[in-house]
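Morning run. Coffee first, then this:
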Amino acid sequence: MASGNDGGWAQRWSGGVPTWVHTSQGGFDRRRYEVVELAEAPAREYIQANHYLSGWPPAVHRFGLVDLQAAGGGDGQVVDGHLLVGVVVLGVPMSRLALTRVFPSLEPYSEALEMSRVCLSPSVASNGESFAVAAALRLAAGHGVRGVVTYADPVARLRTLPDGRTAGSPHGHLGVIYQALSATYTGRSSARTVTVLPDGQVLPARSIAKFVAGDRGADGFERRIRALGATARPAGADRRTWLRTALEQIGARRQRHPGTHKYALAVGRNRGERSRAVFGMPALPYPKWEADRRPSGAGAHQPSIA
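And here it is:
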């Protein structure tokens, strides 16, 4: 996700490649921007073109940050005559429990959702994340959303693009954008083992489960694995067995993940609406970077932390 950090840096995304802007370069002018609701097509196109996680999550609500002073042009996406410079996505997490444990009083998938993507353009000044997320959640409140959970992955995630460039999150995320919004920190998700493909992308457990079950998207998943060098799956062959062999063929590796940082936000246009979000987990102290991971010097690759 787009991020800021405690050194005054904010991470931006273009073509999956991160850049950084600093508060010293000029603050965010909220008069220049507006957050609007988006159809799935433009939101998906923007995320897949720019976010370091190129996959599209199961989305329920999509919101776009538009630059009111830019009329678009070139390769940029235009919404209502203005340049689209950011997207916030609310959607469905892998597990229903991810919502009900945090918000036991809310109906999952309608009143409670996951904030699964936040991606802002390099043209947006630092501190733009807080404006974009807060405005998106106000719009979501009009649809009855009363609580969101979101995650910050502290593990670096890099992948190699077809043109040879490296994209991704080189230092991992801490979640300072959510801390700036006074989100409740509920700890880490469970530690787990993930599958890392040769190009550096993590193979989502959701994708594996859908392929094994033969659900929608299974054919595309199989083509992706074959494109990395796996042999074709024989007609009628067991999917799980084929996948195990295919991952060995392409050199996929298993990596232990310590768990992502979890945050939760009450959503509403007033105190009464926000009071619907009764937290089912205690608030814990915000995590901080260890001293050896703090930024050191302007212009360096700064830690991404949201």
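Residues 1-6, 291-306 have pLDDT under 50 and may be disordered. Good start to the day.
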